[in-house]
Design goal:
The protein contains 24 helices and 2 strands. With 574 residues, it is mostly helical. Strands 1-2 form a two-stranded antiparallel ribbon. InterPro entries: DctM, TRAP_DctM.
C-alpha cells in the first residue's frame, strides 16, 4: 500500500490541491500548505517509491532562493503599474466621457448604446487592463441609460459584462503579463500576439449586436432625438478625419525628405496630424469659432487623450523603446496627468488607487509564493513528468492537446480565478506544449481567451458579480424621466452573459484554427533563397578573397599555393 501511494504521489498531490480549493481555502495558503504537507509525506515515503521521489530535508533550504526569485522579478512590476493606471483613469471620469460621447455618436442607430459600450470597453481595456474597473464603471454609467431608453435587460447586462472582460485579452492585460512570466516568454511578444485576437473578438461582439438589432429591433432601440444633446454633425467629423489624413500625408513626405527612416516618418507624421486636429478642436470649442459641429469637437477632444495614452504604453513597447514595466510606469504617470487635466486628481483618488493596487499586488504575490512551495514538492515527486506523459500521449497530436487543454481550463474556470489558473495550471501545461512543438506565445493567447470565460460563465463569473454589485436591486425612480423602474434580476444578468460565453468559446476555436492571428509577432519570415552574402573585394590584390600571394621558398610568388600561401614542405624533401 505504501509503495502504491509513493509511486503515485504526483496525482494524489494534485487532486488534494483541487479538493482544498473546492473547500474554499484561499489559493495562496492552499498551495503552500499542500506543498509542505506532501513534502513531509514524500520524505517519509521516498524509500518506498523506487526512485520516483527525490525529496530530502535539506531541499527546504532552496525555498528562500525561490522566494527571492519571485520578489526580484522585474516583469511582475508591470502589474502594480497597470493596476494603478487603470484605477486612476476610472476615478478620472474618462469612462463617463467616452460612454457619453460615443453613445451620442451612435445614438441615431438602433443598438447604438450597445455599440458604444463595446467600443468603450475595448478602449478601457487598452488603457486600464483591469476587468473590475471596466465593468463597474460601465455598469454605473451606461446601464441606467440603456434601461431608461427601453433596452432589454438581458442584452444590456450581457453587453456590459462581456465588453468589460475585453481587458483580459487586449493589451496591457494583467493576465497576459502573468502568462508570459509563467511561460518564460517576452511580455512584449505576448502583447503583440494577443492584439489581433482581441480586436477580432471586439468585432464579433459588434457583429452580434448588429444581428440582434435586426432580429429583435425592440430589444435595443435608437436614442430618441431629444436625448441626443450633442445634435448631429457626423459629416463635420468625416471632414475633420479627411483633414487629418491630408496633414498626415504631407507631414510624412516632409519627414521622409528630411532623412528619417520610413517607420519613424509614419509615427512622426501621425503624431503631428493628431496634435494638429486636437489643437484645432480645442481652439474651435473654447474660442467659439464653430468651424466644427459640437459632436465632432467632443469626439475629437474626448477620444484623442486615451488613444495617446494607449500609444504611450503599447506603442513604446511594440516599437522596442520601452519594456512592459517601463511602459506601465509611463502609463501610470500619463493617467495622473490626464486626471489632473480633467481637474479630478486629488489625494483621496491617489490614496484609493494605491490601496487597491497594493491589495491586488499582495494577492498576486502571495499566490506566487504559495505556488513556489507547491512546485518545489511537485517537481520533487516528478509531477511534471507525470503531467507531460499524460498530455503528450493524448490522441491527435497538437490539435488533440489544445482541444483537451481548452476543455480542462474552461471547466476549471468555473471554480478558479484566472490568477490561480495561471499560477497552478499553466506551469504544468507549458512543458508538454513545448515538447509537442507548440509556440508558447500562441498557446498563451489561447489560454488567455479561455480564461476570459472565467469572468462570464455562471455561477462564479466575477464580471457578473461586479455588475450585480452596481445594478439596481430594488425599484427606483429614473432621474430624467421620473418613471418608476424595475430592478435588475440576477437571473437576467446570467441569461444575458450566456450568448457571450458561446462567442468566447468560438473565439478559442478561431485562434486554434488560425494561428497566423498570433504568429505575426515574429515578423515577416525570411526567404533563404533571397539571402545574398557578398565579400568585400580589394582591387589590385591577388590570391583568394583578395589576399596577396605570399612568397614561396625560392622567393617566387606563391601563386601555386592554396589562396596564395606557400606550398607545404613534403616530408623527406630538402
Amino acid at each position: 500500500m505504501l509503495e502504491l501511494i509513493a509511486q503515485n504521489m504526483a496525482p494524489i498531490m494534485f487532486l488534494s490541491l483541487i479538493i482544498f480549493l473546492l473547500l474554499g481555502y484561499p489559493a495562496a495558503f492552499a498551495l503552500a500548505a499542500n506543498g509542505l504537507l506532501f513534502f513531509v509525506i514524500g520524505v517519509e515515503l521516498s524509500g518506498y517509491s523506487g526512485g520516483s521521489i527525490n525529496l530530502d530535508w535539506p531541499l527546504l533550504n532552496a525555498l528562500p532562493q525561490r522566494f527571492w526569485g519571485v520578489l526580484s522579478n522585474e516583469t511582475l512590476l508591470a502589474i502594480p503599474f497597470f493596476t494603478f493606471m487603470g484605477i486612476v483613469l476610472e476615478k478620472s471620469g474618462m469612462a463617463e466621457d467616452l460612454l457619453d460621447t460615443i453613445g451620442q455618436l451612435f445614438g441615431p442607430v438602433r443598438g447604438g448604446l450597445a455599440y458604444a459600450v463595446i467600443i468603450v470597453g475595448a478602449l478601457l481595456a487598452a488603457t486600464t487592463g483591469v476587468v473590475a474597473a471596466s465593468v463597474i464603471a460601465m455598469g454605473l454609467i451606461s446601464l441606467p441609460i440603456m434601461l431608461r431608453y427601453g433596452y432589454d435587460r438581458k442584452v444590456a447586462t450581457g453587453v456590459i459584462a462581456a465588453s468589460g472582460t475585453l481587458a483580459q485579452i487586449i493589451p496591457p492585460s494583467l493576465v497576459l503579463i502573468v502568462l508570459a512570466d509563467q511561460l518564460g516568454r517576452s511580455v512584449g511578444d505576448m502583447y503583440k500576439g494577443a492584439l489581433i485576437p482581441g480586436m477580432v473578438l471586439t468585432g464579433i461582439y459588434l457583429g452580434y449586436v448588429m444581428v440582434m438589432s435586426i432580429i429583435k429591433p425592440g430589444s435595443m432601440p435608437a436614442l430618441p432625438k431629444e436625448a441626443r444633446t450633442l445634435g448631429s454633425g457626423v459629416m463635420s467629423l468625416i471632414v475633420a478625419l479627411v483633414f487629418t489624413g491630408v496633414i498626415f500625408y504631407f507631414a510624412m513626405g516632409y519627414f521622409e525628405k528630411s532623412g528619417s527612416s520610413v517607420n519613424n516618418s509614419e509615427i512622426l507624421a501621425a503624431g503631428v496630424a493628431v496634435i494638429v486636429i486636437y489643437a484645432v478642436a480645442v481652439l474651435d470649442k473654447f474660442l467659439k469659432i464653430n468651424v466644427m459641429s459640437r459632436l465632432a469637437q467632443q469626439v475629437i477632444i474626448v477620444l484623442i487623450p486615451p488613444l495617446a495614452l494607449i500609444f504611450l504604453v503599447l506603442g513604446t513597447i511594440f516599437l522596442g523603446v520601452a519594456t512592459p514595466t517601463e511602459g506601465g510606469a509611463m502609463g501610470a504617470v500619463g493617467a495622473l496627468v490626464l486626471s489632473a487635466i480633467k481637474g479630478r486628481l486629488s489625494f483621496p483618488v491617489v490614496r484609493d488607487a494605491l490601496a487597491a493596487t497594493t491589495r491586488l499586488s499582495a494577492f498576486v504575490l502571495f499566490i506566487l509564493l504559495g505556488a513556489r512551495v507547491f512546485s518545489l514538492t511537485f517537481y520533487g515527486v516528478n509531477g511534471q513528468i507525470w503531467v507531460e506523459h499524460l498530455l503528450t500521449s493524448l490522441p491527435g497530436g497538437q490539435l488533440g492537446f489544445l482541444i483537451v487543454v481548452s476543455f480542462l481550463v474552461f471547466f476549471l474556470a468555473f471554480f478558479l480565478d484566472f490568477f490561480e489558473l495561471a499560477f497552478i495550471i499553466v506551469p504544468l501545461l507549458a512543458p508538454a506544449a513545448e515538447k509537442l512543438g507548440i509556440d508558447l506565445i500562441w498557446f498563451g493567447v489561447i489560454l488567455g481567451v479561455n480564461m476570459q470565460t472565467s469572468f462570464m460563465h455562471p455561477p462564479f463569473g466575477f464580471a457578473l458579480f461586479y455588475l450585480r454589485s452596481v445594478a439596481a436591486k430594488v425599484p427606483y425612480i429614473d432621474k430624467v424621466t421620473g418613471i418608476k423602474m424595475e430592478p435588475v434580476k440576477t437571473s437576467q444578468i446570467y441569461w444575458g452573459a450566456i450568448p457571450f460565453v458561446f462567442i468566447q468559446v468560438a473565439m478559442i476555436a478561431i485562434v486554434i484554427a488560425f494561428p497566423g492571428m498570433v504568429m505575426h509577432y515574429k515578423g515577416k519570415p525570411i526567404d533563404p533563397s533571397k539571402v545574398e552574402m557578398k565579400l568585400p573585394t580589394m582591387p589590385g590584390l591577388g590570391g583568394l578573397g583578395g589576399l596577396p600571394g605570399l612568397p614561396g621558398p625560392s622567393g617566387s610568388s606563391g601563386g601555386s599555393g592554396a589562396g596564395g600561401l606557400p606550398p607545404l614542405p613534403v616530408p623527406g624533401s630538402n
